[in-house]
Every structure is written in C-alpha cells, then in structure tokens.
Amino acid sequence: MRDDFAHRAGAALANSQLQRSLARIPIKFVSKRAAAVEDFGDFEALRTAGQAIRDTVLSDLDAWLLRFEAEATRRGAVVHWAESAADANRIVVDIAQAGGVRLAVKSKSMVSEECELNPALEAAGVKVVETDLGEYVLQLANEKPSHIVAPIIHKNKEEVADLFAQHHAVPRQGSAWREDIEGLTREARQMLRPQFLQADMGISGANFLVAETGSALLVTNEGNGRLCTTLPRIHVAITGIEKVVPTLEDAATLVRLLTRSATGQSISNYVSLLTGRQDAGASDGPQEMHIILLDNGRSGLLGTELQAMLRCIRCGACMNHCPVYQAVGGHAYGWVYPGPMGAILTPAYRGLERAPELPHAATLCGQCSVVCPVKIPLPDLMRHWRERQANRGQKSWRERWSYRAWAWLAMRPRYYDWASRIAVRLLGWRAVDGKLRHLPFAGAWTDGRDLPAPTGQTFRELYARRTGKGGRR
Questions:
Q1: What does the UniProt keyword field contain (predicted)?
Q2: What are the sequence ranges of the domains in the chain?
Q3: Under 8 Å CB-to-CB from 393, ≥6 apart: which residues?
Q4: 3-state DSSP call for residue 235?
Q5: Range of weakest confidence among 118-127, 130-139, 287-296, 459-468
Q6: In terms of CATH architecture, what is 58-294?
Q7: What is the DSSP code string of 384-438?
Q8: For residue 184, what are the CA distances in angstroms to 168, 179, 190, 222, 411?
Q9: Residues in Cβ contact with 59 at an 8 Å cutoff, skipping those fewer than 6 apart
Q10: What is the CA radius of gyration of the chain?
C-alpha cells in the first residue's frame, strides 16, 4: 500500500499547535548544535575521522560482525542474527517465553520501532512498558515517535498533563499542575520506578557495537536506559548490523560526533558500555544478555549507490536542519525514520513503490549534508531515488510530459528565450498587487501561499542589456 505524504503534510501544515511545537526546533537543536560545534574546534577533522571509521567498517562488514560475535560470545552474551523484522520479533518472543517473562521494560530504540516489536510481545502475553519519558508519553497516547531523538517534539506540556490525568490515578488540585514540567516528570518517574523493579526483561537498542570487546554502547540522557539494562535478569539489545565499529577508540570518536550533532552536548548524561552477562559475585547486571543483529534490508545497500546511508549514526541533525521537516514534522513521513534520512531509508527498506513521494520531500538545499556528522551526501541519494523512479517509468504522464517539454526547449536556446519572455509577461499580467494567487495547471504552488510575480525582464534580456552581446544564441 502506498503512503500519502502529501495528504499528511497538508494536515500538518494546517495544525496550529503542531506548528508552534515545530517552531522550537531551531532553538532546541539548531542553535545548540552550532554552539557545540564551534566550542569543539576543528569539527571538520572530526567529521572526516567519523566518515573514515564508518567506511572502514562497511568495506568489510561481515568480518567485523564476526569479530564482534566472537568477542561478545566469549564474554557470556548470546548473539542472534535476524534477517527480517519478523525474525527479530520471533527471537525476542522466544527469549521471553523461555525465560518466563511477563513484564518487559524498554529503553528508547528506533530499531524496535522499525520491527514493531511491542505488538509482537503483547500478542505473546508479555506486557511492555516504554521507560524513556517521551516514549512513555507516546505509549499512553498510542502514537508513534515524530523524531528519532526527541520523540514527542510535536506535543506540548498541556497535552502531556492531560494524558497523565487520564491514565494516572493521581489527585489534581487547581490548574497549575498542567504547567508544572518538573512535577509531571516526577509523576512519570513514580509510575515507572516499580516497573523497573518488577520487570523480568529489559530491552534496549545500541548506538554502537564494539568489535574488539564485544560490547554494546548505549548513549542516553535519562537513567532509564541504565535501569533497563542492569536490573532485569534478562537484557536484550537489538540493533542494525551497520552499527558495529572496530575499537573503543573509534566508538569514542563517534560519540563525540553523535552527542554534539544530536543535542548540542559535549557528552550525554549516560554513556553505558554493556559487556556480557553478570559476573559471579557482581552486584548488578543481567543473568542473560542477548544481542540481536538485524539486517532488514541493510545488506542490500552494500555495494550500491546508497551504501553511504549505512554510515548514519542516527543523530537527527539532518531533520533538525531540514526546512521540510521543520514545516511538517515527523509523522508526515509515514514510518519510523523521518526527514532526509527517512526520504532515503524508507524507500530502501519498504520499497520505492510504497513511498514514492518521500525522495521529493526535500528542497535539496543541502543543509542536511552540511551538518551530517559522517558526511552522508543526502541530497545526492535523494536524487538517486528520483532518477530510479524516472527510469522505471514511475512518474505520472503529466510530470513526464512536462520534463520532456522543458528538455526540448532547453536544447533549443532561441525557442527557450522566446518562451521565457512570453511566460514572464503572462505571469506579470496575472499578478494582483505583485502576487500570484493562483496558477493554472499548477495550483499546488499557490493553494497555500502567494508567490511573488516577475516584475521585470528575463535573465537573458538583462544580460543582453548589460553586456550588449544580444539575448539570443
């Protein structure tokens, strides 16, 4: 079934509350990242180092994964290989059933969202509780994340307060509680703390997998991640096969990139290095540690024009700086990964025929590639998908005809000059107070905004007047 980005984007543009929430992105993310980058010093050298680390892994991915498996196994972890999301879900369900699990607590994991793990566990009789504050709110609201780092960026504190009032049996006095962010956070903590203590299984993602030690590295800003991975007797970490890095030093380099690019922090509040199961005599740690390595389409990108996308460290900087994401938010993209990264990953993992509009959900301004910490050429990859659509004949007849007409004119400069002059005059005549309020056959450009009308001559006419060389060639 095809996703309808245009319809969802239109609804997002008309949602005034969402627009107010999205207006905070430049303040919360863009400016903080810029300050952190400036404070670091030679951030470009760090980006180059990060790109080299990721490319080194991708050029020999199978060998690094086998090295990781050997080291993780040697330290007591069990490594599982999942070709698809269904395989990953089956593995987690099998682990839960073998361990008699009735309650699982989860740290934020986009890969588990990709697999739709929660419904699979609940169908097997396992209660799942999201413990990241944003994900917990979304679970109460029965919604999906709209951002990979800040999942409830689309909500305000009043909406969160109303959800808590609906789901928590906590007395309310007056109306001030709806404004008390600290109080709402404390209330969520009080609700979640017993879940950590009662849970049989903790589920997390992994930002990186360290091949030399067999460790899963987890970066969080809330203590829930550490509680999920140490208190329950079973810990399951699920992540993509591309997340492996060769050494601890490489992981440290990428963490420096990740935290600055994601939240503008020099380091996040918690960086957990999870290695194997609990040692004899240790005071904490799981009795069982399972690591699930998910493919789900990733290996299919190796050796293709899209391989660079596997460098991604999931910082969210591309979406924070994308004018389209800033205007419509994450839910408009229709799947787990929004913004420029989603415009590439969703067609790759779900099929271009299911997300034909996403490669076009960008202005190609280049901001995403400028801020990407591992230098992924995101606009080039979106253009690749557009070219593939054209080569497959997946464009509408109207769009194909329009491009052919433009190409015919562009190859004939004299006719192009005449057509440009005529178009400028016609658009000028249609203007009202210098604005184009409606364009025939192109209403989508003016349905939601007015466009400035051309007021003078064409470029060729201006060039000819200034140089005296003539406007036609």
A1: 4Fe-4S, Electron transport, Iron, Iron-sulfur, Metal-binding, Repeat, Transport
A2: 1-41+316-395, 58-294, 398-467
A3: 400
A4: strand
A5: 459-468
A6: 3-Layer(aba) Sandwich (3.40)
A7: HHHHHHHHTT-S-HHHHHHHHHHHHHHT-HHHHHHHHHHHHHHHHHH-BTTEE--
A8: 11, 9, 10, 15, 63
A9: none
A10: 26
Torsion of Cα atoms, 417 then 419 then 420 then 422, to 10°: 120
pLDDT digit string (tens) for 210-227? 999 999 999 999 999 999
Distance of CA 367 to the CA centre of its chain: 15
Q: Indicate the Cα dihedral angle 315, 50, 324, 387, nearest 10°.
A: -130
Per the structure block, which two tokens stand in for 294? 């998910």
Residue ranges of alpha helices (H) inside 219-374 are 224-230, 248-263, 317-320, 323-328, 339-350, 367-371
Task: State the pTM of this model.
Answer: 0.89
pLDDT value at residue 470: 58
Instruction: Kindly report, residue by residue over 230-242, the tens digit of the pLDDT.
Output: 999 999 999 999 9
